Amino acid sequence: MIYNRIVIKLGTSTLTDGTNSLSMPQIIELVRQISLLHDKGVQTILVTSAAMAAGRQELNYPELPKYLPAKQMLAAIGQPRLMEMYSQLFRIYGKIVAQILVTRDDLSDRRRYINARNTLEAILGQGVIPIINENDTVATEEIRVGDNDNLSALVVNLIEADLLLILTDQKGLYSKDPRKDSDAVLIKEIKDHGIPEVLWNMAGGSGTKLGTGGMNTKLEAADLARRSGAAVIIAWGKDPNVIFRSVNGENTGTFFHPVTSKLESRKRYMLTGMRDSSRLIIDNGARTALLIGGSLLPVGIIDLKGKFGRGDTVQICLKEGEVFSIGLVNYSAMDLKKIIGHHTDEIEAILGYTFGEEVVHHNDMVVL
Predict the structure, then answer these.
(1) pTM value surpassing 0.85
(2) Number of H-type helices and E-type strands within the chain
């Protein structure tokens, strides 16, 4: 396998097989492929649509007004049904799943961002498959991502995935709409730094009545994910063994080359939240640990400067002033003043709570 950590996005059209209800044969086949991939050691995160489709099916397809509360009602009914189905099917293959419901606020606010990241890292560390959907039940228009294509790209950035695989009802990105033009040609790969304007113009709206995204949102997702350092594939969900083959490097649809490295993307994210006056001053032992891939613990911190909150970006330096790393802190300056120099097993006794052993986890750190 050429990818170690992937995000798979399953659209409503894929999960319903183009009908108005969930297609169990199709879903069973997708679960089989994901489980096989997981057996090979590939960390897999699933972003799933179809909660509203499941709710509509549960209520026997009622006629409802097209406004947000009705959609939220359907999602509230359908989401537990969807998760129950996934849980039962993955259990056949000995897999445990976890449900994660998020909004745009959870991924744009730095404190929520680091909470979500740490939770997902812990889930993946236990060999569990996270299943993510937008929290449609409570999300207002202002905090909605709005479609699971873009949500999947945000998740790629969150956990620094190697590949985003978007499965849909088309074999990939075409030069024209294949549903209307018989001379439409499948585009095998996109290497350009920017997606050509003609392709944006070609992309239309939602392809199905049940879905909320179309090829346009898939292009948006691909553009975002590849700027986070990930490769992207848009492929047909019914293509035999499409998941396993895609992760194994086969050409299964339209392949988008990443336009930056994950490291550079990570640096940019951290630098946007940098507070110039915020520093953690560490000893030489801590510096050595960081340079070989360790995390920063309270015992290695000598002093701190500046005001910062949990999830902010701080500089990490020696007493002499050499800044050699930046990272996202798990504790605010106020909390850190109480625990610097202490061992990790003392944190909870001192603060009354703990956000973990690490002040800065190695996954949330970049050595400059």
Answers:
(1) no
(2) 14, 13
Is the pLDDT assigned to residue 140 strictly greater than 50?
yes
Q: Which two tokens stand for residue 322?
A: 């050499």
- Contact assessment for residue 111 and residue 310, using Cβ atoms and an 8 Å cutoff: yes
User: 49-70 burial string, b = 16+ CB within 10 Å, else e?
Assistant: bbbbbbbbbeeeeeeeeeeeee
In the chain, the amino acid numbered 258 is P
- pLDDT exceeds cutoff 70 at 36: yes
Residue that is last in its domain, among 262, 283, 299 = 262
Determine the average pLDDT of the residues in 255-283: 80
Instruction: List, as one string, the DSSP characters of 155-206.
Output: HHHHHT-SEEEEEESSSS-BSS-TTT-TT--B--EE-SSS--HHHHHH--SB
- Which of the four pLDDT bands, split at 50, 70 and 90, describes residue 368? confident
Reading the block at residue 143, the tokens are 């905090």
Q: What range defines the domain where residue 332 resides?
A: 273-367
- What do you get for the CA distance between the two ends of the chain, in Å? 30
Task: Give, for 110, the enclosing helix (H) or strand (E).
Answer: helix 110-125
Instruction: Tell how strand 253-256 and strand 129-134 pair up.
Output: unpaired
CB 101 within 8 A of CB 133: yes
User: Does residue 203 share a domain with residue 351?
Assistant: no
